[in-house]
Design a protein that fits this description.
The structure holds 3 protein chains of 3 kinds.
Chain A lengths: L2 E5 L2 E2 L2 E2 L1 H17 L2 E8 L15 E6 L8 H15 L3 E5 L2 H14 L3 E11 L2 E8 L4 E7 L5 E5 L16 E5 L10 E8 L12 E5 L9 H11 L2 E4 L1 H5 L20 E5 L5 H4 L7 E5 L7 H4 L2 E3 L3 H14 L1
Parallel strand pairs in A: 1-4, 1-6, 4-5, 5-11, 6-10, 7-10, 13-14, 13-15, 15-16, 16-17
Antiparallel strand pairs in A: 2-3, 7-8, 8-9
Chain B lengths: L2 E4 L2 E3 L22 E3 L1 H17 L3 E6 L5 H10 L3 E6 L7 H13 L5 E5 L10 H9 L2 E12 L2 E7 L4 E8 L2 E5 L11 H6 L4 E6 L14 E7 L8 E2 L4 H14 L5
Parallel strand pairs in B: 1-4, 1-6, 4-5, 5-11, 6-10, 7-10
Antiparallel strand pairs in B: 2-3, 7-8, 8-9
Chain C lengths: L4 H4 L1 E2 L2 E2 H29 L9 H13 L8 H28 L6 H5 L1 H31 L9 H28 L9 H10 L4 H25 L7 H10 L34 H9 L5 H5 L1 H4 L6 H15 L25 H6 L5 H5 L7 H13 L6 H12 L23 E2 L5 E7 L1 H6 L1 H16 L4 E3 L9 H6 L2 H16 L2 E7 L2 H9 L6 E4 H11 L13 E4 L13 H8 L5 E3 L29 H11 L4 E4 L2 H14 L6 E4 H8 L2
Parallel strand pairs in C: 3-5, 4-5, 4-6, 6-7, 8-9, 8-10, 10-11
Antiparallel strand pairs in C: 1-2
Classes of the chains: A alpha/beta, B alpha/beta, C alpha/beta.
Chain lengths: 324, 259, 677
């Protein structure tokens, strides 16, 4: 029987959303071929993570060991390799996250299985998967095929798939497996987590966000947008390039490496809509984007769009608000 | 502290409207300008800084044609000591093949750290670095935003999702994929790049590396490229700035935000 | 007067002339030694060709050195200085006379016995009083009025020297006065100073008079040699170096010096720009020596007035002091310093922010009475900073964009001519190799890619059409002119752009180049080699106006009060003040007022050059905002610009300041085209 495996990503005792997104897609892929869907959990002893997963998989295989409490590429790589060699799953999915990027390529070399990364769609055709990826920072899509192999590795872009909504009928079984005794000594040791998003303002609590991107041009232009935000009673936020240039502190950053926000309205000014940013606003009520470039990717995800110079629009907004 | 930096030359596409080429598997490149991959620029800067603090040498490697030597010269101008270009000829490349070529080239060298960028601006693959690490048998970490060597190990900072960083200690030699923002890369002037011509740049045809046919066979292939579908997308609001502003204010108020 | 008096008088058994010789030899030897030490840096500095156009140099020396044409720009200070300067010129002869008398070789005596001598004595006396008066006025002015531009200058030195000069005047007066009383002779003519002193001394007994006579003489001589040797120690070195400095001044404006004058191919250079003080040219070192600490430069520096750390005066003073410390008069010279020992020029002696604060507007150079140059030096220092990666990181992306796409925005080169589509149906010829055209319209980056610049370019297209001009653009063949790039210090990239543009220009036949932008105009005219004719649009369309080919006929509504802002690179650097005013004057119904600071005293808008890409933290208010203030003070409600940078910066300032109801910004081209039918 064919099998699709999903490597569960968790942090500080909580399963990350990407895991559920992958399980949902994997279930969809399993159905037509009656494959078995297995969730693979590598976690610390008594983590109890399996319970949250049984609804969404046919089988939850658990490796519990205190050494596995926090992701470690060497250990995960070793355990997963052995599992894959034994079980020979058709497809193994991992999240395209920092940890996923550390794991999947190494696992690919170790197992000898081909890998496609950061996929936004997966199909199975003639016994082989076909994936869709974005290239040129989202300006283009590519359809990618694999060389014939006994198994395939895929990393999945967070947010590309929706988490499962319908409650399934059955519950999967939990299978505890022994962590191999001869695991090699890991060459990396976890020290601690550090919160970088902390700051005076919590953008995740705002109802209205005025967000700036590279389109703002220079640091000195931020002042006029700040004025707009103040006048609207909104909170100022931004995309990554603004923080990389040290124009705003990190706690303003929205996106995969920043914060996920869910305001009622998100006003994106001069933001192109790079995936990493857009991933942070999936929870927003209404997204309004202003960008000079009519073809900017942001307009694909926004609810309303204005293809114009953001400063013109910002000034007009300030004027209207002053008048009204 | 000897460091190897793997770099790539990519097209500048930010302001460009991409056009799909005749074969439908790539883009038209004639009007494009090429630069060093942004992530890789940070790698070179980080390597040079470590060399300035700890001594040792920095070697920059790329796989490409003679045009790609430009980024090697830039790396040398920034402070790298040696550069190597591997000429792939007409080989079809994917992440797997690239990592194998790099492995063969690097295998015999003396190093404590290997840096690659988290991903390349063109294919956004994000896999070559860690594949290379595994092929070389090195410890590894991805999306690194801080490196502090401590004897035979290094304390590293990895950027995770959602505003959290992870600090760990990793044993050297190690391969790290470097994230943007780790430092502020220095400027290199035209004159500086010209002067770098004096530094060593070796060209190795890929055939000289003696890779097996299997190692040079891509494991994934692009079947076609296509422009993003014109999906529902945003409802565009047209008109002059004043009327646009009025409409936006109306929308915002309708969505329950009092402004 | 007594012949050979001081020479023959006997003191402590020795005749006066012995003492005179000792003092003179000692004084002159010390002076020669000091000058020798000071000349060391000049001799080991970089070369600078300043020996051509001797005729023009002499003329300028006359105009600016002797007549001191720039002095009265600050009226009273200028008047005082002229008084003292002319005093020195006239009294020089007197000093030689006095010294040679003491040396017992009174060579000037025959001359002084003639009618000229009588005339001269009167003249000298008058001037002694003038100088004395000027010195007292100067002391009081400095102490009581305290002009702001003197802040940071060495006041003690000023007072000392004014005191010394006054003392020299007084000692000569009393020497002469006592002499008159001791040996009255009939035919002395009118000697107001000496006779005045005599009046004071009248009634004193001869012995006292004799003592006064002698003391005045020897004090005068001693003070003279002390003063002579004091000059090279501080700002009064200018008394010696100013005239040479003016003689060797820059004759051309607008362009930047090459990396090194004696090296044509910059690839041959080991290092670029100024790292240590010896990397400056000899003329620059002479500049440092010549600073009078008058502060007129800083007073006019726009960066300084908005709170940036740059004060041109302080820059020169610091570098002068550094020169003095590098080759001290006594003690070891700082031998070939490496980076480790000794202070770093940019970093320790002057700060990075000072160097990057400059907008290269040239106000300092236009003001300096002794023609000290600033821009070349600052650019030279920037060149070194760029080469050693010490530039602000914000430059990196801009320079990379210019290198890769030929424009600072990073927009594709292929789209450089897309703006033409915005001009409606007007035909715009696209030039290629082998084409011939009358006017080559060099659009440059802002005209091609920035909306404000593009609209100016479109207006130019309209005006070209109205005037029936045969013109064309280069489109993607055109690369950034390199003006800002050169002034940021990236000389290598500038040369690259220049070479590429020259290659293109060589292949096309044209009569003249017309630019949208004063920066492109400036660099094509003054930095690029070759002798093609370049004009800014203001000159070009003013010429069409003169020929009658352009007729502004639609009158304005008379509501606006217009004022014209002279852009730095059109006005100050290239002397084009009248052409734009002629254009404005031809527009019916245009009410034009002039700002107080106009023409070569125009105040930089802060645009162009590095300021677009680097924030200086200490800045209190934007230059553009300050300039809008000046426009308002002049009673204007419309400010007319002739440069896209000025336009953008003023628009920005109006928006930021919320002055949309009080001030409009309009480009000259737009204004002109709106009145054509």
């Amino acid at each position: 029987m064919g099998e699709i495996c999903v490597v569960v990503e968790h942090r500080k005792g909580e399963i990350r959303d990407i895991t559920f997104e992958m399980l949902s897609k994997a279930r969809e892929l399993c159905r037509p071929f009656s494959h078995r869907l297995t969730a693979l959990v590598l976690a610390g002893k008594e983590a109890g993570l399996a319970n949250g997963l049984t609804k969404w998989a046919d089988r939850v295989v658990v490796f519990e060991d205190d050494r596995l409490e926090t992701f470690n590429a060497d250990l995960y790589k070793d355990i997963l390799n052995r599992f894959i060699q034994k079980d020979r799953p058709f497809m193994t999915l991992m999240g395209h996250t920092s940890w996923g990027m550390d794991l999947a390529p190494a696992l690919s070399v170790k197992t000898g299985l081909p890998l496609a990364t950061d996929c936004v769609d997966i199909q199975a055709k003639d016994g082989r998967p076909m994936v869709v990826r974005q290239i040129y920072s989202g300006k283009l899509f590519s359809r990618v095929s694999f060389k014939e192999s006994s198994g395939y590795l895929i990393t999945v872009r967070p947010g590309a798939f929706l988490p499962p909504d319908a409650e399934p009928g059955s519950e999967g079984e939990v299978v505890k497996q022994e962590v191999p005794a001869d695991l090699a000594e890991p060459r990396k040791a976890f020290v601690e987590f550090v919160e970088t998003g902390a700051g005076e303002i919590d953008i995740t609590q705002a109802d209205l966000l005025v967000s700036i991107g590279r389109g703002v041009g220079e640091e000195e232009n931020i002042a006029t947008i700040r004025e707009l935000a103040d006048r609207m009673g909104a909170t100022l936020s931004c995309s990554r390039p603004v923080v990389d240039k040290n124009w705003l502190p990190k706690f303003h950053q929205v996106g995969t490496s920043g914060k996920s926000v869910r305001p009622k309205v998100y006003l994106a000014l001069g933001i192109s809509g790079a995936f990493q940013h857009v991933a942070g606003i999936t929870g927003a009520g209404t997204v309004i984007a202003v960008n000079k470039d009519r073809k900017a990717p942001i307009f694909r995800v926004a609810d309303y769009g204005v293809a114009d110079d953001l400063f013109k629009v910002a000034d007009a907004l300030k004027e209207k608000l002053a008048g009204a | 502290m000897n460091i190897i930096v793997c770099i790539k030359r990519v097209p500048m596409t930010q302001e460009v409207d991409l056009e799909i080429d005749g074969k439908g598997k790539g883009i038209k490149t004639e009007a494009l300008a090429y630069v060093i991959n942004d992530w890789d620029n940070y790698c070179i800067e980080e390597a040079v800084r470590l060399q300035e603090s700890f001594g040792g040498s920095v070697t920059a490697i790329t796989i490409g044609s003679e045009d790609d030597e430009e980024i090697l010269r830039r790396a040398l101008a920034m402070g790298a000591d040696k550069a190597v270009r591997i000429d792939p000829g007409a080989l079809e490349l994917d992440g797997f093949v690239v990592s194998n070529i790099l492995k063969k080239a690097i295998q015999g060298m003396d190093y404590d750290l290997v840096f690659t960028g988290v991903q390349a601006d063109d294919d956004n693959g994000g896999m070559v670095g860690i594949m290379l690490a595994e092929a070389l048998g090195l410890s590894h970490a991805a999306v690194v935003t801080g490196v502090e060597p401590e004897g035979d190990a290094a304390v590293i900072r990895v950027e995770l999702e959602g505003g959290t960083d992870e600090i760990s200690k990793i044993r050297l030699p190690s391969l790290l994929t470097i994230q943007t923002g780790i430092n502020e890369p220095r400027y290199v002037s035209i004159m500086g790049i010209r002067k770098a011509r004096k530094k060593e740049l070796t060209v190795i045809p890929v055939a000289d590396l003696g890779l097996s046919e299997e190692d040079l066979t891509p494991r994934t292939r692009i079947e076609e490229v296509f422009l993003p579908p014109e999906t529902t997308g945003a409802e565009m609001i047209e008109g002059d700035a004043a009327s646009v502003a009025a409409q936006l204010i109306k929308i915002i108020k309708e969505k329950g935000v009092n402004i | 007067m007594s012949l050979n008096y001081p020479a023959d008088a006997v003191y402590l058994g020795l005749p006066g002339w012995v003492y005179a010789w000792v003092i003179s030899i000692a004084g002159l030897s010390l002076f020669a030694y000091i000058i020798y030490k000071r000349s060391f840096l000049i001799r080991s500095a970089a070369p600078d060709p300043r020996f051509a156009h001797m005729g023009k140099r002499l003329l300028d020396l006359l105009l600016y050195g002797v007549i001191q044409k720039r002095q009265p720009r600050y009226l009273w200070a200028g008047v005082i200085h002229l008084m003292i300067f002319w005093g020195f010129v006239v009294l020089g002869l007197r000093s030689i006379d006095l010294v040679t008398q003491g040396l017992n070789i009174p060579i000037l005596h025959p001359l002084m016995e003639t009618g000229f001598g009588l005339f001269y004595n009167t003249l000298k006396d008058i001037f002694e009083l003038i100088v004395l008066g000027a010195c007292i006025w100067a002391i009081l002015r400095r102490a009581l009025i305290r002009p702001e531009r003197y802040e940071g200058s060495h006041h003690w030195e000023a007072y000392l020297v004014l005191g010394l000069i006054s003392f020299l005047m007084l000692t000569d007066m009393f020497y002469e006065g006592a002499g008159l009383l001791l040996e009255p002779s009939g035919s002395t003519g009118w000697l107001p100073a000496s006779q005045g002193a005599a009046l004071i001394l009248r009634g004193s007994d001869p012995l006292f008079l004799a003592r006064v006579h002698a003391a005045s003489y020897w004090l005068h001589i001693l003070t003279f040699f002390f003063f002579l040797n004091f000059l090279p120690l501080g700002k009064h070195f200018h008394i010696i170096t100013a005239l040479p400095n003016v003689f060797f001044k820059r004759l051309s404006t607008g362009g930047i010096k090459p990396a090194r004058w004696d090296v044509e191919d910059i690839d041959e250079l080991d290092s670029m720009g100024v790292e240590k003080v010896e990397d400056f040219t000899w003329k620059h070192i002479l500049d440092f020596y010549t600073c009078t600490e008058c502060g007129r430069c800083s007073d006019n520096c726009p960066a300084n007035s908005v709170g940036r750390p740059l004060s041109p005066k302080m820059l020169t003073m610091k570098l002068r002091d550094h020169c003095f410390n590098t080759v001290p008069l006594f003690g070891k010279k700082q031998e070939d310093r490496s980076e480790e020992d000794g202070p770093v020029l940019v970093g320790d002696i002057v700060s990075h922010d000072e160097i990057w604060s400059c907008t290269t507007c040239g106000a300092c150079e236009a003001e300096c009475p002794v023609f000290i140059e600033y821009i070349d030096k600052i650019i030279d220092m920037r060149r070194h900073l760029i080469e050693t990666s010490q530039n602000p990181k914000t430059f990196n992306q801009v320079l990379m964009h210019v290198e890769k796409t030929g424009n600072p925005f990073g927009k594709p080169a292929a789209k450089r001519a897309d703006w033409v589509g915005e001009c409606g149906d007007l035909p715009v010829k696209r030039l290629k190799e082998g084409d011939a055209v009358d006017v080559l319209f060099f659009v440059d980056g802002y005209g091609s890619y920035d909306p404000a610049g593009q609209s100016i370019a479109c207006d130019m297209v309209r005006a070209f059409n109205k005037g029936g001009i045969d013109f064309g653009i280069l489109g993607p063949l055109e690369k950034d002119s390199g003006h800002q790039v050169r002034r940021m210090g990236e000389e290598g990239l500038f040369q690259l752009l220049m070479e590429e543009n020259m290659e293109t220009l060589k292949e096309i036949q044209f009569n003249r180049i017309v630019t949208t932008d004063p920066h492109a105009f400036n660099t094509l005219k003054n930095d690029y080699p070759g002798s093609f004719r370049v004009m800014h649009y203001a000159e070009f369309f003013a010429a069409l106006l003169d020929e009658g080919r352009l007729k502004p006929s639609n009158p304005l509504d008379g509501q606006g009060v217009y004022t014209y802002h002279d852009p730095c690179y059109l006005g100050r650097h290239n002397g084009i003040y009248d052409a734009p005013r002629r254009l404005l004057g031809a527009i019916p119904g245009l009410n034009l007022v002039e700002m107080k600071r106009s023409r070569d005293r125009s105040f930089c808008c802060g645009g162009g050059d590095v300021m677009l890409w680097h924030e200086i933290e200490q800045e209190e208010m934007r230059m553009a905002a300050k300039r809008i203030e000046m426009a308002r003070e002049a009673g204007a409600n419309v400010i007319v610009t002739a440069c896209p940078f000025c336009y953008i910066h003023f628009e920005d300032a109006v928006k930021t300041g919320g002055w949309e109801d009080e001030m409009r910004v309009v480009d000259l081209m737009r204004l002109l085209v709106s009145t054509l039918d």
